[in-house]
Prior knowledge:
42% of the residues lie in helices and 18% in strands. It has helices at 2-7, 10-31, 36-48, 52-60, 87-98, 116-128, 145-159, 174-178, 184-188, 257-273, 286-289, 310-321, 337-348, 364-379, 413-417, 429-445, 455-467; strands spanning 105-113, 133-138, 163-169, 192-196, 216-219, 223-227, 250-254, 295-302, 325-329, 352-358, 383-387, 396-399, 403-407, 421-427, 447-448.
Amino acid sequence: xxxxxxxxxxxxxxxxxxxxxxxxxxxxxxxxxxxxxxxxxxxxxxxxxxxxxxxxxxxxxxxxxxxxxxxxxxxxxxxxxxxxxxxxxxxxxxxxxxxxxxxxxxxxxxxxxxxxxxxxxxxxxxxxxxxxxxxxxxxxxxxxxxxxxxxxxxxxxxxxxxxxxxxxxxxxxxxxxxxxxxxxxxxxxxxxxxxxxxxxxxxxxxxxxxxxxxxxxxxxxxxxxxxxxxxxxxxxxxxxxxxxxxxxxxxxxxxxxxxxxxxxxxxxxxxxxxxxxxxxxxxxxxxxxxxxxxxxxxxxxxxxxxxxxxxxxxxxxxxxxxxxxxxxxxxxxxxxxxxxxxxxxxxxxxxxxxxxxxxxxxxxxxxxxxxxxxxxxxxxxxxxxxxxxxxxxxxxxxxxxxxxxxxxxxxxxxxxxxxxxxxxxxxxxxxxxxxxxxxxxxxxxxxxxxxxxxxxxxxxxxxxxxxxxxx
Length: 471
């Protein structure tokens, strides 16, 4: 009788439905082949935060596309088949081919900008001289002084008949997403814009968590700017603007690697707008556009539109392949357990491992989440530098004198397994030396990190580590 009465209570059916949903969520977690670290974090969230944890998983839990609208795997292949002249480059090529992604492209010309005003001047000069097409994809686009200057230049080019396509992430560019009337002059001039994964379309869509963090700035289908810089006054700006810019990197690339980025942009634009970019008529055969004697680049995209975790695989292999030095620059250091173990093993192998990160980043929750990883790296022989001059937003990994890894991805779980990202593995002595010089300047004025010996502090750090994989 008591059982019958219990069944007739609304609370019974509420908890019964909740149990079914939790089981479904757990099965979904297992289906996505998550790391044990991330799996345990979500299980604890579901158990310790009833209903709230489930809601968080529904909104934030997915990490791959499971719908018919899933983007196809990138299939473009470079004409130059020769692998980079290094053992690491050749082995990374094998990983890319095994994951059905393009391998190396040769004879690229690379310029790396570490100064915000110089990067802005070159960006605007290229934009204003564009003749046929402008394709911009960014996480953040703000209509501050820098953003307004870029928008006005886009409007002018659209009026001249240049094809202008602007793709922004709806979360990263949320302020503009809310006030889209400000983009009406661009549309009136003939340009187009779109927001990736719009929020209001389906606020409880499980894909809401799958943000697009790529930076792809393409001009005339032959000149590319990419790296970590978004389109706002935090990253770029005029010399006449009294602003303290963040430290970041932007690269200008010409050569076969540009085609890889064009293909990525095309897929992201098609997914967002259901429209195809017009036929690429201005791109000549790669052998004609490439500059002989240039640099080798491996363009590695990652995210929900890639079936495998190829960026993670290539990065993990690179850490194990390092012989002398691994130098990391990342604003948010919350590595997967496999990456962390690779760093600790590298130290034991005699490899010098350094991490340079902001003394205080723009996200306090990430500062809490990184603490235990910094402490573990430091106490096992790694060296950690804390840069306190301004926000250090650059993403860079140097492997010996062999490879510079530069792009949009941070060394955290979100960049490795959730966000849409794109990274370049660059085999260029010139770029590597420039990045070493840039990093040495930062480290000279940085504070050397020493782990806290306070028990309460260490306990808090260890507690935040439990939930760090879902940040």
